[in-house]
Structure formats: C-alpha cells, structure tokens
Amino acid sequence: MKEILDMRKFSGQVRRDFLQLMVKALDETEASQQQSTKQSMRPTDNFPEDEEDGADVLSGVFSPAEISSPSDETHSSPINRALSIDEVLAQSIIFFVAGFETSATTLTFMTYLLAIHPEIQEKLRKEIDQAIGKDVPPTYDLISRIPYLDQCINETLRMYPPATRTERENSEEWTYGNLTLDKGTIIAIPIYAIQHDSEYWPEPDSFNPDRFSEENKHKIVPFTFLPFGQGPRNCAGMRFAIYEIKMVLVSVLQRYRLVATPRTVGHGYTHEGQVWNSKKFRTGRKTKNSKFNHRKLLKMHWYELPTTATYLRTFVPRFWNHLMQTVYCAKPSLRVCTQFWSLLQQTPHELVLALLFT
Ligand code: HEM
C-alpha cells in the first residue's frame, strides 16, 4: 500500500478516488509537520494550523459529525487534522475489507434468493423493464426509480446481513436494570440475531420483500433493521454500496434470468449444525429464449467465499454463542458481555437504542 501511495504521489498522477484523498491527507501531514518544526510546537502537534484544510481532506470521505468525533479525548474542539501513514494504511485496509466483501456477499445472497424465488425475480425484472428497459444502460437516476429493487435489497440485508454484529465501547460506567457495565467494556450488537427475532420479524426465515413496501415499512420497529449499523458511526459506504449493488443487479437482470440449478442443493445453507459449503451454492443464468445450458453455469460468487468466521457466526449460532462466551470470558473485564448477550437476546431493541448512542 505504501508503494502504491508513493507511486501515486511521485508520478503526479491525480485521480478522483479514495487513494487520492489519502495521498492528500498525507501531504497535509507532511506540510503540517514542516510547519510545526518551524514554529514553536503546540501540545497538540501534528495538527495543521489551517484547520479548514484538514477538514477539507476528510470531508470528501466522512460526514462532518465523523470529522468532529466527540469520542476523541485529546481535543475539546472539533478535530481537523491530517492523517499519519499508519492511519492512511488502516483506512485503506478498512475500505478494502469493508467495501468488497460486504457488497459481494449481498450480491451473492440476493442472486441466490432471486433464483430460488422465481415469482419475486419476475416481479423485479418487470419493474426494471418498466423503469429502464432492456437496452438502456442503468444510471444513478434510473436505478433510483425502482422501489421493488430497494425492497429486495433490504430483505436480503435483513436475512443475510454481511456484518452479523457490530460493537461499541462503553465510554463511561453505565447501568441498565441490575446490570452495570464498566467503562471500556466492549458491547456486541447482534445484528443477525435482532433481524431474525420473530417478535419483530414474523417468519424471519422467509424471503418477503413486501416487509419493506410503502404500506408496510412503518411497521418496522426502530433499531431492529441494522445492516449498516446506526448512529454517528454507521457505515460510511452505505450509499455507495447500495448504488453498486443496484448497478450490478440491474445490469444482470436486464439480460438474464437467474435460475436454481440441479447443483443448488436445498437452500444451500443451514442455520444450525452445518458449516457453509460453497460448492452447494450455485445459480445459473438463462437468457430469455435459450434453453438452460449446464455448461454455462454462472457461478454467482462475485468474490470468493467470505471469511469463515463470518459464516460460522451467521450459520452456526451455537458455535457463535460459544465463541462469544470463550472470547469474552477469556478477558475478565469483558466477562459481563456474556450476561449481556443473553439479555440482548431477550430485549434487544431498547438496549441497542441506548447503546448505539452512548
Ligand atoms: C452491503 C454493503 C455494506 C454493509 C452491509 C456494511 C455494513 C457496515 C456496518 C454494519 C458497519 C458498522 C456500523 C456501526 O457500527 O454502526 C460499517 C462500517 C463501515 N463501513 Fe460498511 N458496509 C457495507 C459497505 C461498505 C462500503 C462499500 C464501504 C466503503 C467503500 C464501507 C465502509 C465502511 C466504513 C469506513 C465503516 C466504519 C465507519 C465508522 O467507524 O465511522 N462499507 N459497515
């Protein structure tokens, strides 16, 4: 990554992408370091004098709320600073990991769900046809006019959230009922479990995009649909991800009908007891007038199988529970999370609401 950054920097090549923001952020750091060696150093060294510039670099990537993160204890005023090389590397890695696997997983599951629910796929294809047509390349404006597409994506993200949980760290001691959480406790928010709780999502294992229809969406209990997290630290790439997913799906469905093949075994997954088997998860494509051709199976793996850990957590909840307990019990200060986990399973959403904004 450092080599790529150096190459970009020294070749003078300028592109409109994330890496360019990172190069700019590094430049800001160097400029601020040079400036601070010339001037007498403030206690908060490494921060550019011109706060506007620092904000500008970050504002292309993060919202103002994120730039002025209240959780940074070193500064009481809004933070406008450049990034160190380590931070640039960390951001780049997060963007690769958070950006590729998640969208790829959603596309994988969505193509699978559409293949095994042909009636839903037909309805979606029809709406795409009406909104865009077959030969017109999809654009941002065009793909925004297909409400049923949003419904199908949301329902896929409910059933198979690529991030099965998120975390928050307690910034101060906090009490809920007879449970007290120490400052610094890491709290897991079990997105997958909440989105499969039958109290909030009747028949949680059935694929029903109508849950998100105009008539029904008001019934969704706040904070029970969390595929992109919630609050000031929710997913930075949400809009981009949805756009990307829509572009791929529309392009595919304009040309192809997704079908389950003899190699698509059952649902290809199981909620308990079995580890994900990628070989079972195949869908095929069929052009409108052609007979299905087994030799031309289109493997709907946009990306190789996402991490085993994610799948173990998602598909083998017993293992996941066990893992939670072992991991948290191994760290005495986090032991409370084991109790917290069972509490969350009973009354998820009030707690989640409180915790996300702690
Ligand atoms: C379907 C696709 C995606 C899903 C389901 C997803 C999900 C999530 C979730 C659950 C979080 C944690 C939010 C929270 O704790 O409240 C998160 C954070 C984040 N995501 Fe995504 N994500 C997706 C795509 C992307 C893409 C495409 C990018 C970048 C291009 C991205 C960048 C990030 C970043 C940088 C964070 C950390 C935000 C912060 O800490 O302030 N994500 N994502």
UniProtKB/TrEMBL annotation:
Residues 29-55 are annotated as: Disordered. Residues 31-43 have a biased composition (Polar residues). The keyword Nuclease does not apply. GO terms for molecular function: heme binding; iron ion binding; monooxygenase activity; oxidoreductase activity, acting on paired donors, with incorporation or reduction of molecular oxygen. Heme binds at residue 235. InterPro entries: Cyt_P450 (IPR001128), Cyt_P450_CS (IPR017972), Cyt_P450_E_grp-I (IPR002401), Cyt_P450_sf (IPR036396), Insect_CytP450_Detox (IPR050476). Keywords: Heme, Iron, Metal-binding, Monooxygenase, Oxidoreductase. The keyword NAD does not apply. Its cofactor is heme. Pfam families: p450. Belongs to the cytochrome P450 family. This is Cytochrome P450.
